Amino acid sequence: MRTSLNVPGEVLDAFDETWQNEELESRSRAVREAMQEYIERHTGLEGLEGTVVAALAFDYEHTLVIGELHTIQHEFESVIETTHHMHHGEWCLETVFCQGPAPRVRELVYQLRDFDAVGRVNVLFLQPEHAPTANE
């Protein structure tokens, strides 16, 4: 199936350089791999149950989103144990350490990912009571 995407030029340039350096056969192959990794990451997050301990690391453009991020952090204070924040020009790196019900932590991740000014949100689960296997 063919599809089209709108991607910033610098992202496409970096993506092309990466898959070519890895000697993949084509951009299509690299996109399929990236999509599969995204699906696996999402289904792994969806499969968690019970109480989890997690570290959420995300970067964002400070001036565009700081107020909204503070609001969300207050809304999720029942699962956020502590945060660590670092400035780098207009961009910031933040790590939020969470403990609580998997659905509530999952909701926090999805809300953070919904901001255009947030570059990416990486999640590391430290001690899930139920860790999904590759077959789940």
From TrEMBL:
> Which processes are annotated in GO (biological process)?
regulation of DNA-templated transcription
All residue ranges annotated as the Transcription factor NikR nickel binding C-terminal domain in the record: 55-123
| UniProt KW keywords | DNA-binding, Transcription, Transcription regulation
Q: Name one GO molecular function term.
A: DNA binding
Where does the UniProt annotation place the signal sequence? none
Q: Which Gene3D superfamilies match?
A: ACT-like. Chain A, domain 2 (3.30.70.1150), Met repressor-like (1.10.1220.10)
Name of one Pfam family that matches: NikR_C
PANTHER family registered for this protein in UniProt? NICKEL-RESPONSIVE REGULATOR (PTHR34719:SF2)
- What is the name of this protein? NikR family transcription regulator
